[in-house]
Amino acid sequence: MKKNYLLFLFTIIYATGFAQEPVLESFSGTRVLSNHSIEMLPKRSLEFRVSHKFGDISGDAGGLNNFFGFDNLADVRIAFEYGILDDLDIGIGRNKGVGLISGVVDGYAKYRILQQKTTGMPVNLVFVSSLALPYKAAVEDSTSVASYPRVLNRFRFTNQILVSRKFSDRFVLQANVGYNHRNYVDFLDENGLFFAGVSSRLRITKVFGLLVEYNHVLNRPSAIANNYQNPLSVGIEILTGGHSFILNFSNARALNENLFIPGTTANWLDGQFRFGFSINRQFKL
Amino acid sequence: MSSCLKDKTVEPTPPPSGPCADTVSFNEELLPEIFNLSCNTSGCHDAGAGSAGYVLETHDQISSNANVIFNVINHDAGFVPMPYGGEQLADSLIQKVDCWIQQGKLNN
């Protein structure tokens, strides 16, 4: 009788523990398309990332003459990212950059506050803080955003909170709110920009999935609002035995959130969208 | 964050407006429209005659005498009005010389 009671107790404990398993693989990597996802790197794993974005597929700078953008490189980022803990990642990267903001070093720290569980916790909650600075020599024209009178003027920061829920194996929804601060902007622009975004992953078949990522800048000054676009990316995900290939189409030229949140000018409606992809390799240290 | 700055770029000065908004071209405007037609014609301020000691055929010769040239074509008091014995140049041409001097007597 006593034996049976103990067995019953173990079953209960095991079943409860099992029921609170973390919900894994909301996204296939630490980025949805360009921006961060709620996914973290496993503890003590180093990820080497090489990300590319090509030139405009169509529009004035695209078409057959530029082989639909493949002749041009919009941005490339080479980065090392590391999972210190299961819930804490850091990363450092170097971006080609876009336009006047070129030769950009970036770094980030990312902390998972809450993790979705099969019962109990319904969502993931992650905080990401990043900074970027272009290190190339300042230009002399003091009306240029690349004239940087002080060294600190080069810095830009982005803090974001990501919330996501994996509703089923087929459907994941992520929302994010954030604040981007640039220490030096055009005289008509705002140093601090608030933004909100939504991302989703929809698996259509076992092999194919659809990804969407959109960020909306909330307080761009109206005088220059027409010069900027909100970054919208659409991706096709192909899952093949342990690997995930993501074909990314985006109007944003830059790869780092400190550049593409405040600085996207390309317009989908003018054909100014491009192909992008990422090659990632994880090393267990 | 103490490192957050609110710095902005210098506001660009508006482009110049008024009569001298466009840069006057010496070689395409001043020389053919004024000097070759009304000044360095044969027997006047050409290299052969050099009337009153002024030869006005090259940028060097014209720019070094620019102020006197403006005075005489503008028919300022105390100067011999030019073109000598002819009608005063059109106002738009005199304006071009004035602008060209203000813009630094460019050889452009």
What do these coordinates show?
The complex is a heterodimer of chains A (285) and B (108). Chain A is mainly beta. Helix content of chain A is 9%, strand content 47%. Chain A contains two helices and 13 strands. Chain A has a twelve-stranded antiparallel β-barrel with strand order 1-2-3-4-5-6-7-9-10-11-12-13. Chain A is globular, with a radius of gyration of 21 Å. The mean pLDDT of chain A is 92. With 108 residues, chain B is mainly α. Chain B is 36% helix and 2% strand. Chain B has helices spanning 26-38, 59-64, 66-73, 91-102; one strand spanning 7-8. Chain B is elongated, with a radius of gyration of 20 Å. Classes of the chains: A mainly beta (285), B mainly alpha (108). The A-B interface holds A 142-145, 147, 149-150, 152-153, 155, 157, 181, 183-187, 189, 191-192 and B 1, 3-12.
Look at the structure and give the mean pLDDT of chain A: 92
Count helical runs of chain A: 2
State the total count of DSSP E strands of chain B. 1
Query: Considering DSSP H and I runs of 4 or more, what fraction of the residues of chain B is helical?
Result: 25-40%
Fraction of residues in β-strands of chain B: under 5%
Q: Please name the two chains that share the biggest interface, counting residues whose Cβ lies under 8 Å from a Cβ on the partner chain.
A: A-B, 20 and 11 residues
Mean pLDDT across every amino acid position of chain B: 85
Global outline of chain B: elongated
| Beta strand count of chain A | 13
User: Uncertain segments of chain B of ≥5 residues (pLDDT<50)?
Assistant: none
In terms of structural class, how would the helical and strand content of chain A be classed? mainly beta
Order of helices and strands of chain A: HEEEEEEEEEEEEHE
First-to-last CA distance of chain A: 49 Å
The profile of the biggest β sheet of chain B is: none
Strand content of chain A: over 45%
Oligomer: heterodimer
| Unreliable sequence segments of chain A | none
